[in-house]
Design goal:
Strand 9 and strand 10 form a beta hairpin. About 50% of the residues are buried. This protein has about 900 residues and is α/β, with parallel strands linked by helices. Helices cover about 50% and strands about 15% of the residues. The chain is built from 36 helices and 30 strands. The protein has five domains: about 90 residues, D-amino Acid Aminotransferase, Chain A, domain 1 (2-Layer Sandwich), CATH 3.30.470.20; about 70 residues, no CATH class; about 130 residues, Phosphohistidine domain (Glucose Oxidase, domain 1); about 300 residues, TIM Barrel (Alpha-Beta Barrel); about 35 residues, no CATH class. An eight-stranded mixed β-sheet has the order 12-21-20-14-15-16-17-13. The protein binds adenosine-5'-diphosphate and magnesium ion (2 copies). The site of adenosine-5'-diphosphate has 16 residues, from strand 3, strand 5, strand 9 and strand 10. Adenosine-5'-diphosphate (ADP) binds next to strand 3, strand 5, strand 9 and strand 10. It catalyses: pyruvate + phosphate + ATP = phosphoenolpyruvate + AMP + diphosphate + H(+). Keywords: ATP-binding, Kinase, Magnesium, Metal-binding, Nucleotide-binding, Pyruvate, Transferase. It is an enzyme of class 2 (transferase). InterPro entries: ATP_grasp_subdomain_1, PEP-util_enz_mobile_dom, PEP_util_AS, PEP_util_C, Phosphohistidine_dom_sf, PPDK_AMP/ATP-bd, Pyruvate_phosphate_dikinase, Pyrv/PenolPyrv_kinase-like_dom.
């Protein structure tokens, strides 16, 4: 097996094998950009290592060969005593996992080569600083020594020399520090720091492989739905130095602003610094524009490369670069992560610049991102107490009590509290706290700091670099420059990730501009938009939504039970109602009539109860049909288990027993109890419900169908265009549907004869039992349409009840990998999905034009929508809030 690829051998499409970083380093090398020479060890090697616990022997041999090639190319040897070659060992999986996998810089330094580096660079301070960094990073990431030991020693050294900044330490101090760091390694790792350069390289490589399986990495992958078996690649890259004095530096930049999407380059730069210094937010950075005045040539070259990369990748790129004594080096690029707003804006900007087509633009945005843009924002018109203003790093509006550490964030969030994680800066250890918090606020770091990058990836509100804050994590206090108060974990703050503002106390929230657009249309959204950025965003969303509507094949309907919900859904672009549940029409004060119906022992009693319900139901339908005029409206006949309409068995038993003892027993209660007992079920989910209830309770079908028919007549009489579709739940056998259909048809015919209007409404059924799907060819004989009820179908296919399992064993099942994600959230394609496909296929064997829809919650889930599209369904129906998301996703999958 070929485990090692030189950068000059691969390309950007080999992410699977070389990881994202490796594939893009190769691509940049191919483009002739200044990438330091190096090679990539493949993900195959990582998987082989993880499977066997040892590095394959072939790999060692191939590494030697690749390393010698690099050495020859540069005329330097790894860790040699004079002018040594140094390398970095960098992880890089297929998907970028910020801060998950560790990188070790300056590999190859030891007690001898450090002197060689000092001589070659003519800068002993720099050489010793690089050496102490190596021991520190190597100790932490390869040998698992707690990083605190090193930073404490470093702080102590600075204090003893009376200096504030790392680079103010002189050679002598750094030499001492190297000795102290080695001692720390010896004490805490139980071994000596390895002086052999190749041993350093091999140990670091193994550590990268191992880091694939750390808890942090698992947590991140679970959140991001990244498979656990991909493995990571390892990149070995010649070191270039941003810490060789004032003409050197390191930076991160973006070809467009990844936070607002504004066009124009964006970046952070740090003079005389190495690697992670920028990202860690340890010192506050300069902006890219400052580089222009510091080093015009490098700046111009970088701008040229940025433009070239953007044209090449035809997307926003992010870039890591280093300048070593005036020479620019490219260390990384990739198609950059961005906020939801930036995704929409950049997509349409690229269309306008004629770099991509509208179809491609649509594939660059997701339903998930649209959802984020629909979140509410702070109300500009309320009184607000501004504490400070800092870097808007990840948009949204978050309000909560302050927490200062992870454990507290996690425990208070679990207790249902909304909390804001406030830190000086964050590092990968803070991930659990960031997940738990509603927002993140840091005192240090720019838009490319750890906090910012990770928060953006999670869609979490984040404000960073708030220098006015003085965070004391151990005392759990927060002070703000210019204010007297001391804030604690009892105080509420509000952070605005779009403006960077931090407020004290609760702040009211209002509709986002995109929500205004979805609710009230483009014109009004543009009118109320405060600035150009907002106007451009709203326009981008509008253009992409319109394009999605144009290309999609799936129709989008909404689940709506009330006229209000139906109206909301129509405003958001729903083309009909795919599920109008009727059970609420029997609850509340109407429950009594249903009870009367259940208790009635005579024909008259039943009829009286039905007569009370008819006008009420009809009224409900008239309003709904009016709202949905001209659009299909699928009405599902009653579905829930009978017992939901009866009093609770335990409560009633206790009452009857007490009353009997006291001699105050009402005979009606006694009779009610016997009915409740008779109808009590141990598994109501699988009991007397749906079509079973309809068939066993005389008069129910007739009542509901008559209410629909008469409501339709009323609408027709007023010139309306009612389009109800009657849907029968929980059908398992064609015979059930046949009986209901006959009775329903009789009612429709009767109302039609009385009114003179033709009422040939479609009658169909839900497919939510495996038996129905499997025998769909026969069921289709009696059905005008099918609607897959994927919630129940998931329960009945797996054989578990959602209410019970979600609280009991889902977490374990997710941890064990039985589910990648809850099957109630995203359709389980291999199981439940196949049942859907079978139902669709067999139904259409009988009726090629059979209309097929989905009305489970999956109808609004971005991933599931793709599956439904591929399965040839006609529509998805989802909650009104999800309608725009479904439209967008249906467009994306049609491309
Ligand atoms: P991450 O995936 O966390 O960004 P990287 O492997 O990109 O990890 O490296 C971490 C930091 O070290 C980055 O700032 C990167 O630019 C820097 N770095 C990595 N390799 C080198 C190298 N060969 N020379 C100089 N700096 C490097
Ligand atoms: Mg990087
Ligand atoms: Mg159901």
């Amino acid at each position: 097996t070929k485990y090692v690829y030189r950068f000059s051998e691969g390309d950007k499409d080999q992410k699977e094998l070389l990881g994202g970083k490796g594939a893009n380093l190769a691509e940049m090398t191919r483009l002739g950009l200044p990438v330091p020479p190096g090679f990539t060890i493949t993900t195959d090697a990582c998987r082989a290592y993880l499977a066997s616990g040892a590095v394959p022997e072939e790999l060692s041999v191939q590494v030697t060969r690749a390393l010698r090639e690099v050495e020859e190319e540069l005329g330097r040897e790894l860790g040699a005593a004079d002018d040594p070659l140094l390398v970095s060992v960098r992880s890089g999986a297929k998907f970028s996992m910020p801060g998950m996998m560790e990188t070790v810089l300056n590999i190859g330094l030891n007690d001898e080569s450090v002197r060689g580096l000092a001589e070659a660079s003519n800068d002993p301070r720099f050489a010793w600083d690089s050496y102490r960094r190596l021991i520190q990073m190597f100790g932490k990431t390869v040998l698992d020594v707690d990083g605190e030991h090193f930073s404490e020693a470093l702080e102590a050294k600075k204090a003893s020399r009376g200096v504030a900044l790392d680079y103010e330490l002189d050679v002598e101090a750094l030499t001492e520090l190297v000795g102290e760091f080695k001692e720390i390694v010896r004490t805490h790792a139980g071994i000596d720091f390895p002086l052999d350069p190749r041993a350093q390289l091999d140990m670091a490589t193994e550590a990268v492989f191992r880091s694939w399986n750390t808890e942090r990495a698992h947590l991140y992958r679970r959140r991001e739905k990244i498979p656990h078996d991909l493995g990571t690649a390892v990149n070995v890259c010649t070191m270039v130095f941003g810490n060789m004095g004032q003409t050197s530096g390191t930076g991160v930049c973006f070809t467009r602003d990844p936070s607002t999407g504004r066009s124009g380059v964006y970046g952070d730069y740090l003079v005389n610094a190495q690697g992670e210094d920028v990202v860690a937010g340890i010192r506050n950075t300069l902006s890219l524009a400052d580089l222009e005045s510091l080093d015009r040539d490098s700046y111009d070259e970088l701008r040229g490369i940025m433009r070239r990369l953007e044209t090449h990748y035809r997307d926003l790129c992010d870039i890591e670069f280093t300048i070593e004594r005036g020479k620019l080096w490219m260390l990384q690029t990739r198609v950059g992560k961005r906020t939801a707003a930036a995704a929409f804006r950049v997509a349409t900007q690229l269309v306008d610049e004629k770099l991509i087509t509208m179809d491609e633009a649509l594939t660059r945005v997701t339903g998930e991102q649209l959802t984020q843009l629909m979140f509410p924002q702070f109300d500009d018109d309320t009184e607000r107490d501004l504490l400070t203003r800092a870097m808007p790093a990840s948009p949204g509006a978050a309000v909560g009590r302050i927490v200062f550490d992870n454990a507290e964030a996690v425990s208070r969030a679990e207790a249902g509290e909304s909390v804001i994680l406030v830190r000086r800066e964050t590092n990968p250890d803070d991930l659990p706290g960031m997940v738990a918090a509603t927002g993140v606020l840091t005192a240090r770091g720019g838009k490319t700091s750890h906090a910012a990058v990770v928060a953006r990836g999670m869609g979490k509100t984040c404000v960073c670099g708030a220098e006015a804050l003085e965070v004391d994590a151990s005392a759990k206090t927060l002070r703000v420059a210019g204010r007297e108060e001391v804030f604690t974990s009892e105080d509420v703050i509000a952070i605005d990730g779009t403006t960077g503002e931090v407020f004290l106390g609760e702040v009211a929230v209002v509709d986002s501009p995109v929500m205004t657009y979805l609710r009230r249309g483009l014109e009004e959204a543009l009118d109320t938009a405060g600035d150009v950025d907002t106007r451009e965003l709203v326009t981008s969303v509008h253009r992409l939504m319109r394009h999605a509507d144009k290309v999609r094949r799936l129709e989008v309907r909404a689940n709506a039970d009330t006229p209000e919900d139906a109206r909301r859904a129509v405003h958001r672009g729903a083309q009909g109602v795919g599920l109008c549940r009727t059970e609420h029409m029997f609850l509340g004060e109407r429950k009594q009539f249903v009870q009367n119906l259940i208790l009635a022992d005579s024909q008259e009693g039943r009829e009286a109860a039905l007569a009370e319900l008819l006008p009420l139901q009809k009224g409900d339908f008239v309003e709904m049909l009016e709202t949905m005029d001209g659009k299909p409206m699928t009405v599902r006949l009653i579905d829930p288990p009978l017992h939901e309409f009866l009093p609770d068995i335990t409560e009633l038993s206790v009452k009857v027993a007490l009353d009997r003892e006291r001699g105050t027993l009402d005979p009606a209660d006694e009779r009610l109890l016997s009915v409740v007992r008779r109808n009590h079920e141990s598994n109501p989910m699988l009991g007397l419900r749906g079509v079973r209830l309809l068939l066993t309770m005389p008069g129910l079908i007739e009542l509901q169908v008559r209410a629909i028919a008469e409501a339709a007549v009323e609408r027709l009489a007023k010139g309306g265009d009612p389009r109800p579709e009657i849907m029968i739940p929980l059908v398992g056998s064609v015979r059930e549907l046949q009986v209901v259909r006959e009775r329903a048809a009789a009612v429709l015919a009767e109302v039609s004869a009385d009114s003179g209007y033709a009422l040939d409404f479609p009658i169909g059924c839900m497919i939510e039992l495996p038996r129905a799907a499997v025998s769909a060819d026969t069921i289709a004989e009696e059905a005008d349409f099918f609607s897959f009820g994927t919630n129940d179908l998931t329960q009945t296919t797996w054989g578990f009840s959602r209410d019970d399992v979600e609280s009991v064993f889902f977490k374990e099942y997710l941890d064990l990998g039985v589910f990648g994600v809850s099957p109630f959230e995203t359709i389980d394609e291999r199981g439940v999905g196949r049942v859907v496909a079978i139902g669709a296929e067999r139904g259409r064997e009988t009726k090629p034009d059979l209309k097929l829809g989905v009305c489970g919650e999956h109808g609004g889930d971005p991933e599931s929508i793709g599956f439904f599209h591929r399965s040839g369904l006609n529509y998805v129906s989802c909650s009104p809030f999800r309608v725009p998301v479904a439209r967008l996703e249906a467009g994306r999958v049609a491309i």
